[in-house]
């Protein structure tokens, strides 16, 4: 299987590639639109801020390529946030593949921002990406901004407020947590993506 990992400049790229290797897949790290278009699966990782990440995608001339993909696309952490219309982080226009705006998690008593550490996933729909994921499965998060729980949300999470932990619409999906750091839960999500796509 040809898997392309978009060279978005995020600090989690190497760990995403290693996680795929553990599943028997040697993904190609690339900023080349031609390679991405030929792939059977595309992963958009990301760590950092929305504005520099979108600037990186524009620099590589990948914005339209990602918008027009017909193969399964999985955004991870910031990569998931970039799938939405815009982010309050720097008032940044994003890819617009999913409706909605990413906003800062609110301060609340006893709630730390950024949200960092293990938290419980709350599956909302039975989809192939969540096959084999228990209702109380834990995943590892590191983020300050989050997407809303909309009709595209397939799993939610709580940290001060409820937010989208996973999303999916058509051939586009995202995980706000880090599958590559989420032990068996994360490995299962990646395996589901590779083997089942987003059917």
- Which oligomeric form is depicted? single chain
What is the structural class? alpha/beta
Q: Over the alpha carbons, how many angstroms does the gyration radius reach?
A: 15 Å
Question: At the fourth CATH level, what is the homologous superfamily?
Answer: Class I glutamine amidotransferase (GATase) domain
User: What is the average per-residue confidence, as pLDDT, rounded to a whole number?
Assistant: 96
Tell me the strand percentage band: 25-35%
CATH class: Alpha Beta
Spatial order of strands in the largest sheet: 2-1-3-4-14-13-12-9
Per DSSP E runs of 2 or more residues, the count of β-strands stands at 14
The first-to-last residue Cα distance is 17 Å
CATH architecture assignment name: 3-Layer(aba) Sandwich
Low-confidence segments, given as residue ranges, are: none
**Total helix count?**
6
Taken in chain order, the helices and strands follow as EHEHEHHEHEEEEEEEEEEH
């Amino acid at each position: 299987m040809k898997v392309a990992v978009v060279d978005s400049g995020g600090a989690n790229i190497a760990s995403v590639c290693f996680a795929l290797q553990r599943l028997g897949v040697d993904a190609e790290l690339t900023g080349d639109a031609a390679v991405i278009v030929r792939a059977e699966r595309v992963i958009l990782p990301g760590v950092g801020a929305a504005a520099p990440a979108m600037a990186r995608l524009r620099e590589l001339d990948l914005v339209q390529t990602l918008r027009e993909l017909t193969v399964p696309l999985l955004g991870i952490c910031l990569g998931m946030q970039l799938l939405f219309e815009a982010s309050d982080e720097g008032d940044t226009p994003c890819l617009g593949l999913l409706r909605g705006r990413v906003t800062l998690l609110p301060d609340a008593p006893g709630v730390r921002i950024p949200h960092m550490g293990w938290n419980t996933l709350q599956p909302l729909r039975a989809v192939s990406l969540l096959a084999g994921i228990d209702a109380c499965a834990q995943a590892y998060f590191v983020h300050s901004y989050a997407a809303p729980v909309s009709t595209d949300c397939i799993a939610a999470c709580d940290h001060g407020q409820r937010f989208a932990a996973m999303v999916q619409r058509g051939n586009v999906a995202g995980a706000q947590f880090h599958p590559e750091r989420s032990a068996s839960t994360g490995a299962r999500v990646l395996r589901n993506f590779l083997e089942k796509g987003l059917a």
